[in-house]
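Tokens as discussed.
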């Protein structure tokens, strides 16, 4: 029996599918504020839960005070923040401290129309629908939750700052997570100084909540399993229902021809991913596509097995010291967790 490859999948998505899919991924279907377990050694985590809960209550109160979204559609003006209360909440902290758990908990706690997506999924939505239609669709929402907020190029900077300005002006509350403070977005990746006015204007719309602590995915847990031998990997792939098996180089070539907006659909029905001949990748474009794929695998809790070199070698040292360092480290953290999932089975 031949194990199918991810590279043989060809998912098709319409713009309507992209909008419909803007909900928390399966890994975060059941998370709530009550299921977040703060690290007792990191008081900022318990404080962050309180701040997020209070933000969700403010969103619900604002929606109730406006008479729901239909009021705004027929000419009414929705209630906006008063005093020092801002329409945006920004969760800042390292990877693996539970920011996505808190963001999804906000989404679950808020009533009414709401959307949830990663930063990449949001920019993909604008690309599919156009800026004006995206604003029209999202302006009717009570809440927009944006995970993994990042500004990697000037185009995204202008796009997202304008989108958030339009949405918050319409009374939409925005909650976001990132590893970078909002006034430092883009730093080290492009000439952020040229866009300081736009970046600062956007950051002024957010209240910042810091979430400190070590990566919970590795707190007290063993190192990831060693790479498997080629023969053992092939056998494991054949014995695992719903598994795929790809060469790393072939998979990277395949991802280059697919828009990242389809990566989630690519792995929706996959139960385990097996990758042969893992080793350092070359080129930021290749590496960033792998980061996007790893994020979608992690969202869907799809475990991973590999042969070749250790997962920690996937991104060369010069990449780990560059402007996308935090993205690569997050991907390695998530891959480590996913590789443990199959090691336990």
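Sequence:
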């Amino acid at each position: 029996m031949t194990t199918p490859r991810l590279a043989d999948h060809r998912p098709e998505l319409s713009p309507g599918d992209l909008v419909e899919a803007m909900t928390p991924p399966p890994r975060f279907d059941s998370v709530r504020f009550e299921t977040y377990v703060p690290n007792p050694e990191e008081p900022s985590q318990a404080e962050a839960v309180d701040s997020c809960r209070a933000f969700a209550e403010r969103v619900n109160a604002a929606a109730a005070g406006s008479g729901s979204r239909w009021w705004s559609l027929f000419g009414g003006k929705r209630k906006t923040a008063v005093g020092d209360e801002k329409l945006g909440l920004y969760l800042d902290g390292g990877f693996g401290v539970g920011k996505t758990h808190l963001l999804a908990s906000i989404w679950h706690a808020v009533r009414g129309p709401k959307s949830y997506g990663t930063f990449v999924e949001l920019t993909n939505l604008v690309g599919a629908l156009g800026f004006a239609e995206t604003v029209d669709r999202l302006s009717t929402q009570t809440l927009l939750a944006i995970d993994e907020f990042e500004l990697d190029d000037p185009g995204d900077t202008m796009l997202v700052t304008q989108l958030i300005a339009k949405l918050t002006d319409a009374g939409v509350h925005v909650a976001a997570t990132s590893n970078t403070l909002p006034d430092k977005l883009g730093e080290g990746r492009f000439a952020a100084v040229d866009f300081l006015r736009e970046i600062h204007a956007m950051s002024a719309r957010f209240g910042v909540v810091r979430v400190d602590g070590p990566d919970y995915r590795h707190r007290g847990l063993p190192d990831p399993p060693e790479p498997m031998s080629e023969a053992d990997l092939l056998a494991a792939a054949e014995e695992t229902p719903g598994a795929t098996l790809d060469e790393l180089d072939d998979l990277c070539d395949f991802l280059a021809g697919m828009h990242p907006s389809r990566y989630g659909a690519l792995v929706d029905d996959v139960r385990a991913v097996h990758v042969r001949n893992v080793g350092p990748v070359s080129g930021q474009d290749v590496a960033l596509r792998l980061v996007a794929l790893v994020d979608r695998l992690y969202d869907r809790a799809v475990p991973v097995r590999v042969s070749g070199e250790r997962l920690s070698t996937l991104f060369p040292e010069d990449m780990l010291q560059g402007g996308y360092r935090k993205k690569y480290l997050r991907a390695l953290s998530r891959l480590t967790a996913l590789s443990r999932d199959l090691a336990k089975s």
